[in-house]
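Reply to dn_fold:

You asked what the input looked like. This is it:
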Amino acid sequence: MRKRTLVVILLLAALALGAWIYLRGRQGQQAAPSYRTARVERGDLLVSISATGTVEPEEVVDVGAQVAGQILSFGTDSHGKVVDYGSLVEEGTVLARIDDSLYSAEAAQAEAQVHSARANLQRAEADLEQLKAKLQQAERDWKRAQKLGPSEALSQASYDSYQSAYEVAQANLAVGRAAVLQAKAGVAQAEAALRRAQRNLGYCTIRSPVKGVIIDRRVNIGQTVVASLNAPSLFLIARDLRRIQVWVAVNEADIGKIRPGQPVSFTVDAFPDQVFRGEVGKVRLNASMTQNVVTYTVEVVADNSDSRLLPYLSANVRFELENRQGVLLVPNAALRWKPQPGQNAGALGGDGGKSHREPGASKEVRGVSRVPDKDLGMLWVAENGGRIRPLRVRVGLSDGLKTEVSGEGLAEGMEVVVGQQVSAGQAKGQVSPFTPSFPGGRGR
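and this is what came back:
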């Protein structure tokens, strides 16, 4: 019995010792933190401003009608097809014809008035010649009367009659010359009315003023256009689609970083896998305000030799501010993360980074005071055994995901901490702050 009791006691002691060792190991495993890390990579960094815009033709001509009437027919394009959307047209190509019956009648009437005015001019010129002849006859009679004078051969009444006839002939000649001038003015007026009628008649044929592509046709055959104060728009022609523009709305906070000639890349939903290139043409000064947000329109000029970009496509634009090549990059989370108090921070003597302060304040690492520098940051490097150590770096540009870093002791491929892993046991033991609690019991 004593032997059996001793064996049982030894077995129980062994089991208790094993359980104690197991629990200690579990507690050690739970106490040792696990970190999420990322590698320091070498690559290219592009700092840009993102915005949205619309693809626009570089030059658009709005073709209208200057006369009123009904659309009778359309012309033909460079390929012999009826003018329509996307038709290629040359300068002077007939786009449409308006009913010209009224304008033809007006032109014929104006032409008849010109002939009548010219006939009146010829009559006035003939009358002038007749008046000149009468003046010459009256002048000769008056000269003879002056030689004879009032005498027995020429009575005083006859003398006065010759003088009066001469003076009347002079006045009639002046009237004849005025009639000729009036007739010439009538001819000029009639010719001007004829030119106007012919011009209106010519306006009945709508021609393309430029070489380009029709991007919009706004009338149909049989439709009546009315030209009053504003000329109605019939066609919209893009002069040259090999050069396009992207009109981008840029926020006022970013407009100071935009300059002419700046490189730009953009994509469109129609070709999501292709990146198009361009450059800033100019910044328009007429800002617009929408819901208290001020934006400026920036014109981006791009090449479209392959004619893939169509007018009015939506574009996702990136203005390239800085481009760094072959620099060391880390995720932004690595610069934001810092250990909690009590974690195993090897080089900090286990203080968990209490001596580390944020950039812009006095920094202390290993008890050494440093001058404040807003360009300095802290990375935590993962080492063997679950330990971490701090590494002071100089922070450069960032694209929102990764940041350029440099400094002594920093090397490509180095593992830096970006977060801490949460074990299943820790996650199970955590209580959600949103779980309601009840008096006298646990929240559930």
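The chain has four domains: 32-45+328-429, 60-99+204-238, 102-202, 244-322.
Hope that clears it up.
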